[in-house]
Design brief:
This protein is an alpha/beta fold. The chain is built from 13 helices and 10 strands. Helix 5 links the parallel strand 2 and strand 3. The protein binds pyridoxal-5'-phosphate.
Length: 362
C-alpha cells in the first residue's frame, strides 16, 4: 500500500520501458547523434507541452528541466524583473522550505523586501512586485483559492508565481484561465517521473517578449550552436532552458506521462474525484476521536489537495511502524503523518486499511 505518492510517485511500467529504451536503443547505439536523431534536443519543450496540457496551459508556455528549486530561483527573479520599481516580494510564510529559503536569497539579490503571510491573508499593494504561493500546502494538504489570490494580486498590479508541486497530477488546474503569471512544479510526486525527475516552469505568453531570466545558459540562447559572443534569448519559454538537459531523467518522465495522456488514460477530473473519494474513505475509517481532533486537512473537498495529514505524537515512529505493516506513508516534522491519495494506483481498500492500521497503532 503505497500512500507516499505526494512525495515520490510509484513507478509506471511505461517509465521503466522508456528509460530502458533510452539506455539500450538510443544512448548505446546512436550516441551523440541522438540530440537530433532521437529528438533529445527538443525534449524540454515537447514534455513542457505535455505537462502544460495537465495544468491548463496552451502550448508553448511550459518547459521541463532542472530541479524545482532551480526553476523557482529563475522564476522568482524573472517575476521580479516584470515589475521594476516595486519593493516587496510577498511569499507564503508556510511555504515549502526550498521556496522560503530561495525567496530570502532572491530578496537579498534583488534588493526586494521579503514579506510573508498565509496565502488567504495576503494583502498585496502598489509596492508588491511578486506574490508567491503554493497551490496546496505541503504540510496540511490545504488547497488555496488561486482565483482569489490572483484576483487580489492583479488588482494591486503584482504578478503571481504558483508552486504546483503538490497539485499537478492529482487535480485539474487552469493556469491560463486563472491568469496565473508564472508557475513551477515538480514531476516526481503525482506525475510519477521518478526520483529527481526534472521540474517544469510555466510563463504566460503575455510576458514572453520581456521575460528576462537570471540563468542565461547556452541552451536558452536563440542559436545555441552559433556559439556567439553574447547571449540572445530564445523565443518564448525556451529561454528558461539553462544547461544540457538530463536526458535519461527526461525520457523516464516521457514514459511516466503516459499514465495521464496515453491511450485509455483517465482525465484529471476523474483522477481528482477518485482521489477525494480515497481521502473520504480514509477519514471515515479513522476512529471518531482521532478524526475530530487530529486531522489538520480541511474536510471540504474544495479546500483539500491530494493528501490528508494527521497530527500525532511521534510521527517518525508511527511512519516506521506503518511501513512494517505494509503501509508506506511519510512524516513531516514536528508531528505530521501524510497520507497521499494518488488515484492511479491507490485503492479504497488501501485507504481504509491505512486508517485502521493507524488507529490500531495509536
Ligand atoms: C516537492 C517540492 C519541492 C521540491 O523541490 P526540489 O528542488 O525538487 O527538491 C519544491 N517546492 C514544493 C512546494 C514542493 O512540494
Amino acid at each position: 500500500m503505497y500512500l507516499a505518492g505526494n512525495s515520490l510517485g510509484a513507478q509506471p511500467h511505461a517509465a521503466r520501458a522508456a528509460l530502458l529504451s533510452a539506455v539500450d536503443d538510443q544512448w548505446a547505439s546512436v550516441g551523440v547523434a541522438g540530440w537530433e536523431d532521437c529528438g533529445w534536443w527538443a525534449t524540454p519543450q515537447r514534455l513542457g507541452d505535455r505537462v502544460g496540457a495537465l495544468v491548463g496551459a496552451a502550448r508553448g508556455q511550459v518547459v521541463v528541466g532542472d530541479s524545482t528549486s532551480v526553476q523557482l530561483f529563475g522564476a522568482l527573479i524573472a517575476a521580479a524583473r516584470l515589475r521594476p520599481g516595486r519593493r516587496v516580494l510577498l511569499s507564503d510564510g508556510g511555504h515549502f522550505p526550498t521556496d522560503r529559503y530561495l525567496a530570502a536569497s532572491v530578496a537579498r539579490l534583488t534588493g526586494l523586501t521579503l514579506v510573508t503571510a498565509a496565502p488567504d491573508a495576503m494583502a498585496p499593494d502598489a509596492d508588491t512586485a511578486v506574490v508567491a504561493v503554493p497551490a496546496v500546502d505541503f504540510r496540511t494538504g490545504e488547497r488555496w483559492d488561486l482565483a482569489a489570490i490572483v484576483g487580489r494580486a492583479h488588482e494591486a498590479g503584482a504578478v503571481v508565481l504558483v508552486d504546483l508541486s503538490h497539485a499537478v497530477g492529482v487535480m485539474p488546474l487552469a493556469l491560463d484561465a486563472l491568469g496565473v503569471d508564472l508557475a513551477v512544479g515538480c514531476t516526481y510526486k503525482y506525475l510519477n517521473g521518478g526520483p529527481g525527475a526534472p521540474a517544469f516552469a510555466y510563463v504566460a505568453t503575455r510576458h514572453h517578449d520581456v521575460l528576462d531570466p537570471p540563468l542565461t545558459g547556452w541552451t536558452g540562447h536563440a542559436e545555441p550552436f552559433a556559439m556567439t559572443e553574447a547571449w540572445t534569448p530564445a523565443p518564448g519559454v525556451g529561454r528558461l532552458r539553462v544547461g544540457t538537459p538530463p536526458m535519461l531523467s527526461m525520457l523516464a518522465l516521457d514514459g511516466a506521462l503516459e499514465v495521464f495522456d496515453g491511450p485509455g488514460s483517465p482525465d484529471l477530473a476523474g483522477v481528482r474525484a477518485a482521489s477525494l473519494a480515497l481521502g473520504d474513505a480514509f477519514l471515515a475509517a479513522l476512529p471518531a476521536g482521532a478524526a475530530d481532533t487530529d486531522v489538520v486537512t480541511p474536510r471540504e473537498h474544495g479546500r483539500r489537495g491530494g493528501h490528508v495529514a494527521v497530527r500525532v505524537r511521534d510521527a517518525e515512529g508511527l511512519c516506521a511502524a506503518l511501513a512494517r505493516r505494509g503501509v508506506v506513508v511519510d512524516a513531516r516534522p514536528p508531528d505530521l503523518l501524510r497520507f497521499g491519495f494518488a488515484a492511479p494506483y491507490v485503492t479504497l481498500d488501501d485507504a481504509r486499511t491505512a486508517a485502521r492500521e493507524l488507529a490500531a497503532l495509536l
